[in-house]
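S1.2 Input.
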Amino acid sequence: MTPAGEEAYPVPDLEDLGRRARDVLAANDLGTMVTAAPNLYPHMWSWDAAFVATGLSTVSVARALQELDYLLAAQWETGMIPHIVFSDVPGYFPDVERWGTRGVSPDGVQSSGICQPPVHATMLRRIVERATAARGEDARLAESFVRRTLPRWIRWHAWLRSSRGGDGSGLLTIYHGWESGMDNSPRFDGPYSRVRPGEMEPFVRTDTLKVTDTSQRPSDEEYSRYLWLVQQMADVRFDDARLPEVMAFQVKDVFMSAIFAAANEDLAVLAEQFGQPEEASRLRQWAKEFREGVDSTVDPGTGLARDRDVLTGEWIGLPTMAGFAPLISTANGPLLERQLELFEGPDWTGDPRLAFPLPASTSTTYEGLRPRQYWRGPVWPVMNWYLASCLRRRGDEERYRRLREASLAQLMEGHYAEYYEPFTGEPLGSMDQSWTAAVALEWLADSGNG
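S1.3 Output.
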């Protein structure tokens, strides 16, 4: 790795990068939602939508808020925000029929039956800050939106706290790897290996028809386990009280828990700002609970945070990006310093073989590294920006700038890909990915100088 502050990349054409990013979002915009990507992902994904909204806010605060409004309209009566809101575009699998959510989801809403990481409050706070700084109509729209929707965001957090984190561990339970957003990460190999699919309807995947290099995608065996878990949930009508009794996959997700800790703090800021101090106090208590829960998982030997398999009680300590969950949420200074040392060390962004000093989804020295396969090795632009923004919130402007410079250099190749091969920089997965374009606009919205 080039010494800090001495990275030397070709100077990117920032104007062209921004124009192409805006073109991607415009092309993927159905008017009601920005689909996650053309062809492969023609619907709205929950955490994608949050990142997309903040990118949109660099162009239009009104359109950004509309995106979040559309997602909120799919919120279940329980408070859950589903991980997919389906558009009318056909050809995606598993579709709403395979999910079996009709009659459980709100009338008129076609959605999946699981959730995704709760980054929404963090992105909403960012949009509000941007709109407030712009003043005028943007500030008015943002204030009106938050006052109107704040109870629904709080209900979303309350559902997560009670249905997925009510055991006092300070960690959220997921019942499907898809809920983590890191679908086939090695961190879930152990729990998935114990999932034994029963009798299911036959299925024909569509993802491998569109990403023809199947080495980039989960295997058919993995997919059968994914679908069996969907069926287990559908069989009990997605009843939160019954899921712990029936689900063959149950994991305490440390990365999602850290996101929740940070998001509770961000939602508390908004609650305080818009006249709900009692809710702010409750949200800050949840932030503290989950911040401490995440810290408690750190392996003293490796320095990385760990997931826990609920059904076996075993820690899951594989060297994946989730190990850096404390970078998102911790208030422990020595832990933060150790995490940063690891993050910049030879197993991660300090590996000299990397095309750019950016975090891969698993350690570059991990024997199970699959540098072209989804969450088993590639570099994800959206994660680069999210982690950098977390560091910036802490006042770490230097590291933010370094990650920004490397990320913009990575995106110069022009495809706004879903993910990138860590050693060659090759764009992989789906091209013209909305959240990749969105975070490019976020990088471009500031000069890196604070």
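S1.4 Remarks. The first helix runs from residue 14 to 27.
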